[in-house]
Design goal:
Elements lengths: L1 H30 L1 E7 L6 H16 L8 E7 L7 H10 L4 E5 L1 H10 L5 E6 L18 E5 L6 H11 L5 E6 L5 H16 L2 E6 L3 H11 L5 E4 L4 H5 L1 H10 L4 E3 L2 H5 L4 E4 L4 H14 L16 E5 H6 L6 H6 L2 E3 L1
Parallel strand pairs: 1-2, 1-3, 3-4, 4-5, 6-7, 6-8, 8-9, 9-10, 11-12
Antiparallel strand pairs: 10-11
Length: about 325
């Protein structure tokens, strides 16, 4: 009798041991969510890696760990705007619970593919004017996020460039021909050009050959400088742009700190990594049931001015004391 009882207990124990892992696995499957991330830069770009790390850290602090209760899929555009529609279709086909996307073109491609999958964007310029959301306070639809600086701040690039290199009379401005925002950015810079007595010339940044030809041709005449506006192609080819600026002694202002950390002269813009930390918060709220259309679009409130003193010296420029005092960071 004792032997049979033990046998029954043993069989019951086996059933319970088998059932528990199955229940645990079923519960884990129920908790697993899917996040898609669309970055228009190259996968091996150190700046992109910093953004991804900030997003993952932010999610983990909120209880979401890749591979445990959330699965994260990444796609990289490598600055090739003609591929964005294809990438967007691939991501939407994965049926994600939410998509995190960087930049206007990536978000527009996602919206053309789906108007129901929630989208959290980072660094979209003029999301209302571009038709991305209905309003900043009440975005509506399936999209919300964190806006890029307004077009008017682009005029600050020229002011800073003229301040650090007052002899400039000619300035070439980068332009992504696939992004309509570039037209408004150029117009904002042009509005400041007349009072500063500077002639502007736009040039496209579609590929490395075009950039090298344009900068080389522009540098044949004296008193020139460059303005690099925010765009995926400019970020992709930033090493080339920085190298050409040094080679032809062209003072250049950039939109983000990482250009200056890589050897550029001066930058004025937002912290691009902060937006991804903040995006994690919106992703968390959407995964917990909130609708993106009810989450207000947030505009940047903090800008940083960064100067590379070594590059200034190489260009023969003396940084004005007033500019030096306003800098948030000086790289030596």
């Amino acid at each position: 009798m004792r032997i049979c009882l033990r046998r029954r207990e043993f069989i019951a124990g086996l059933g319970g041991a088998a059932a528990l892992p199955l229940a645990a696995r079923a519960q884990q499957r129920a908790r697993m969510r899917r996040i898609a991330v669309f970055l228009p830069s190259a996968a091996n770009d150190p700046e992109s890696m910093s953004r991804v790390a900030a997003l993952l850290q932010g999610l983990q602090e909120l209880g979401w760990t890749n591979g445990r209760n959330v699965r994260i899929e990444f796609r990289w555009g490598a600055g090739e705007g003609d591929q964005y529609r294809k990438i967007a279709s691939e991501l939407i086909a994965l049926a994600p619970d939410v998509v995190v996307a960087l930049g206007t073109l990536a978000v527009a491609a996602l919206q053309r593919t789906s108007r129901t999958v929630p989208i959290v964007f980072v660094q979209v310029t003029d999301p209302v004017g571009g038709g991305i959301v209905e309003s900043l306070a009440r975005p509506g639809g399936n999209t919300t996020g964190f806006a890029a600086p307004e077009y008017l701040t682009s005029g600050k690039y020229l002011e800073l460039l003229k301040e650090i290199a007052p002899r400039l009379t000619r300035v070439a401005v980068t332009r992504d021909p696939g992004n309509s925002a570039g037209t408004a950015q150029f117009a904002a810079i042009q509005s400041a050009a007349s009072s500063l007595r500077v002639e502007l010339r736009p040039f496209d940044v579609r590929d490395a050959d075009e950039i090298e030809r344009s900068v080389t041709a522009f540098a044949r005449q004296p008193n020139g400088g460059l303005i690099v506006t925010p765009s995926a192609p400019a970020q992709l080819h930033r090493e080339l742009i920085i190298k050409l600026a040094a080679q032809y002694h062209l003072p250049t202002v950039y939109p983000y700190r990482f250009y200056v950390a890589d050897g550029g002269l001066i930058s004025y813009g937002i912290d691009t990594v902060d937006g991804f930390r903040a995006a994690a918060g919106y992703v968390d709220r959407i995964l917990k049931g909130e609708k993106p259309g009810d989450l207000p679009v947030q505009a940047p409130t903090k800008y940083e001015l960064v100067i590379n003193l070594k590059t200034a010296k190489a260009l023969g420029l003396d940084v004005p004391a007033t500019l030096f005092a306003r800098a948030d960071e000086v790289i030596e």
